[in-house]
UniProtKB/TrEMBL annotation:
Single annotated GO MF: hydrolase activity, acting on carbon-nitrogen (but not peptide) bonds, in linear amides
InterPro entries reported in the protein's UniProt record: FmdA_AmdA (IPR004304)
Pfam families assigned to the protein according to its UniProt record, in alphabetical order: FmdA_AmdA
Superkingdom in the source lineage: Archaea
Lineage, broadest ranks: Archaea, Methanobacteriati, Methanobacteriota, Stenosarchaea group, Halobacteria
Organism the protein comes from: Natronorubrum sediminis
Name of protein: Acetamidase/formamidase
Length: 497
């Protein structure tokens, strides 16, 4: 098998967690047409592959699950579920480092009918010392794309191929097998066949689809025509760098060719990252908007009312600011936290307006920190300073000086020790998500909703992460309040305060 340059980098990254002294020998890639997507073979590839396989051997893997590790590499995944019944990937120390290598979310799992959810996230990672009622801070150090192309677009449902939910409730339209095993025959939207009867078993196609090839540095991508998309489809798994342990079919097989020649900027981020909820649900539905699909659904993961969604931990955010350099503070709803990662995106505009974007394989490196006694209802994000809205950025020295002069002029005391935070909210609609964010912010900051609304209006605002219902509520919060909640040190470190 030909090794891509990105897959060699990925293997090297994972190996650092087990053998920091391993050095990767040089590799070169050429820029061209299809050849630009495949790097030349490198002498060390076999060594890296064998070392990776050795450390992820099932016996070794099982024995190390309870052992607390300072660095933990994970390349094992669930079949589209998050919850307390999923097998643990291992245990990382409080203050330790997690390295993950994940396959694409959404497109891929969505067209693979034995998946129970719309993503393929890692098995949950136990964090030493994390207990229910605590929080864990995930300091995201690096997000690297390893795919060299992907396909995406607006989806079209094949109603005969599912029951209540096309992301979850798969069934063969011919033989009626639920969550059927499937095989690939050829390329195109008819390529995913039921292993039992041979019928097209995928529940999704494209309403409008396009294929994107990335440059070698993953700084830009360009959309391809039908001929080029077909060429990539013939080697879909390799071009997308689908991990060995992944069970999804690569979306490049669908070979869509709309919108050719369009150039887009890339800035990778994590679409689904967080902590395990106390009940088992489809990974893509761990949010207040996608979770609505579960209400009244007649399948294994259906719930009775929307109130049952209060168990969610909102890992599926699709917020582009959840990228390298950001810190995400997550609730602990099961002992050990159960951190999981998946659904990496190469880029995305605010709102993810076609509901899906450039799903890719990739690696994530992040450090974990337990925040004892910080009981959260959902995530709190500390994005990179450059990602903050103008109105929510930390005060400059000149602004503080001007503020002090103005305060003295009017006889008030300047509240100058303030820090930016973003409270994530989710719900059936943007309005519901915003109210959810207000509810969470009032609990976190122990303020009235009126004060939160006022502070958000004067020093913040609301941003749309994903339509129909994920938002970020921005505000500058008093540091003494954040000190009481145990997160002031995170805010000070993030913004140099």
């Amino acid at each position: 098998m030909v090794e891509t340059a990105s897959s060699v980098r990925r293997q090297s990254l994972l190996l650092e967690a087990y053998s920091p002294t391993v050095e990767q020998e040089g590799s070169k890639s050429e820029v061209g047409s299809y050849g630009s997507l495949m790097a030349s073979s490198v002498e060390c590839a076999g060594k890296l592959s064998s070392r990776l396989i050795a450390v992820t051997d099932e016996d070794c893997y099982g024995m190390s699950q309870q052992e607390v590790q300072q660095e933990l590499a994970v390349d094992q995944y669930t079949l589209g579920l998050v919850g307390p019944d999923q097998e643990w990937a291992g245990t990382v120390a409080d203050g330790g480092t997690i390295r993950t290598y994940t396959p694409p979310g959404c497109w891929g799992p969505m067209i693979t009918p034995d998946f129970r959810g719309g993503h393929e996230v890692t098995r949950p990672i136990r964090v030493e010392g994390a207990s229910v009622g605590d929080a864990v801070a995930l300091h995201i150090r690096d997000v690297e794309v390893t795919s060299m192309a992907t396909s995406t677009g607006s989806m079209a449902e094949r109603e005969e191929a599912f029951g209540d939910d096309p992301f979850v409730d798969h069934r063969c339209p011919e033989c009626g097998t639920t969550w059927p095993e499937s095989v690939v025959e050829g390329t195109g939207e008819d390529a995913i066949k039921c292993a039992e009867c041979g019928a097209n078993a995928s529940s999704f196609g494209f309403e409008y689809g396009y294929t994107v090839a990335f440059d070698d540095d993953h700084t830009v991508g360009i959309t391809l025509d039908e001929d080029s998309a077909h060429e990539l489809a013939t080697d879909a798994a390799e071009v997308m760098d689908i991990p060995e342990n992944s069970r999804q079919h690569p979306i490049l097989l669908y070979e869509p060719g709309e919108m050719p020649g369009t150039l887009g900027r890339l800035r990778p981020f994590i679409g689904n990252v967080g902590t395990t909820p106390p009940v088992t649900i489809p990974d893509s539905h761990n949010a207040g908007d996608f979770g609505q699909f579960l209400v009244g659904a007649d399948h294994d993961y259906g719930i009775e009312t929307a109130a049952d969604l209060e168990d969610r931990t909102d890992g599926h955010m699709d917020v582009p600011q959840v990228r390298a350099g950001a810190t995400l503070i997550c609730p602990v709803a099961v002992d050990g936290a159960g951190v999981y990662v998946g659904d990496l995106h190469a880029n995305q505009g605010d709102g993810e307006l076609s509901l899906h974007t450039t799903d890719v394989s990739g690696t994530v490196t992040m450090d974990v920190e337990v925040i004892e006694g910080l009981e959260l209802d959902g995530p709190v994000l500390l994005p990179n300073e450059e990602d903050l809205p103008f109105i929510s950025q930390p005060y400059s020295d000149d602004e503080r000086e001007a503020g002090q002069n103005l305060a003295e002029q009017h006889g008030v005391e300047l509240e100058e020790d303030m820090g930016p935070i973003q409270v994530i909210g989710s719900g059936a609609t943007v309005n519901d998500a915003t109210q959810n964010a207000f509810d969470r912010a009032t609990g976190l900051l122990e303020m009235s909703e009126g004060e939160v609304r006022s502070r958000c209006t004067f020093t913040g605002g609301v941003q749309i992460g994903r339509l129909p219902g994920v938002v970020q509520l921005d505000l500058l919060a008093p540091m003494d309040v954040l000190e009481d909640r145990g997160i002031a040190h995170l805010v000070r470190k993030q913004y140099g305060l």
